[in-house]
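Sequence design from tokenized structure. All designs in this work follow the same two-part layout: the structure record, then the generated sequence. An example of the structure record is given first.
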């Protein structure tokens, strides 16, 4: 009589296939949850910028100042500061909302999709280049450089230690530290 071994055979190949499938499924679920949970609530909290415009502006700002290390929260905080300014200035609020609509229209004309829905960064940059001479584009670019890079949390992510005058200047705080040159 022959005895069958009913234990599960788990070899390297099955382990890798199962692991990859599990990680991919978990990533798809978590990214979907993050997208659904974070963007609408943040956009709804704005007062002067409409939710659809906020989504477009967020994608635009991420393309203007791309940093893979920075999550959307830093860009959202920068846009929230612009929203506060727009809440006090109806002209600015109109410029932001109408500019976002115009950006989506330019995207549809060039790529048949709203700006935030274009998957390839290179295609979104092409759309941005088509509007770079507009006052809307110049306003976003100029205000966001300050609003984004004026956040101490962003400084930490980018490796900037902050002002050094109160510590005697950079000459005593890493001026001669050339560790960064090895990475270049």
């Amino acid at each position: 009589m022959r005895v069958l071994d009913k234990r599960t055979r788990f070899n390297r190949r099955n382990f890798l296939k199962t692991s990859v499938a599990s990680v991919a499924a978990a990533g798809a679920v978590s990214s979907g949850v993050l997208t659904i949970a974070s963007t609408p609530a943040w956009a709804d909290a704005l007062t002067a910028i409409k939710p659809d415009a906020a989504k477009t502006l967020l994608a635009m700002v991420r393309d203007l100042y791309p940093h893979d290390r920075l999550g959307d929260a830093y860009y959202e905080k920068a846009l929230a500061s612009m929203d506060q300014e727009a809440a006090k200035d109806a002209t600015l609020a109109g410029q932001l909302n109408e500019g976002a609509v115009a950006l989506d229209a330019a995207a549809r004309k060039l790529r048949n999709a709203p700006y935030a829905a274009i998957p390839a960064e290179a295609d979104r940059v092409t759309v941005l280049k088509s509007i770079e001479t507009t006052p809307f584009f110049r306003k976003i670019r100029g205000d966001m450089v300050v609003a984004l890079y004026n956040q101490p949390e962003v400084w930490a992510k980018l490796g900037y230690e902050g002002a050094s005058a109160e510590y005697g200047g950079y000459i005593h705080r890493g001026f001669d530290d050339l560790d960064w040159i090895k990475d270049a």
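The chain has eight helices and no strands. We note this feature because it recurs in several other targets discussed in the main text.
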